[in-house]
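re the bet — no i am not wrong, look at it urself. input seq straight from the record:
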Amino acid sequence: MKITFTYATQKYFKWLKEKDHHIDAITLKKKIADKQIILAKSESGIIGWLRFGLFWDSIPFMNMLFIEGEYQSKGVGKKIVQFWETEMKKKKHKVVMTSSQSDEEAQHFYRKLGYADKGSLTLPKEPLELIFIKEL
């Protein structure tokens, strides 16, 4: 299966809005304009995306990684994260961050990719949020 990665454009706004329920339409449009959403595509269409922002306005922080069910556990997540890390390195960033709730399997995925636990925080009515950092 051939997978390609590209930054989302406004052409994909409707599709992303239907899939990503974690941000509002105004924020989604800004993320697209700011090139902060990367799409994973196969011959069949979009199979996942990675959305990020900047922690403290300077450190790339992966906010969302989503891979369609049938493509999970096939290396797509790993490849899109590696693509993102390479893009961030090209922009002269030395560190990237992400997080995962303590009750999510994603924490193990990030550790396998070289992300190190660097702390945690609690939000009201939410499980412990684990913070991960990786040096590029």
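see?? Strands lie at 4-7, 37-42, 45-55, 59-67, 95-101, 116-121, 129-135. told u. also Residues 76-90 form the longest helix (15 residues). so pay up
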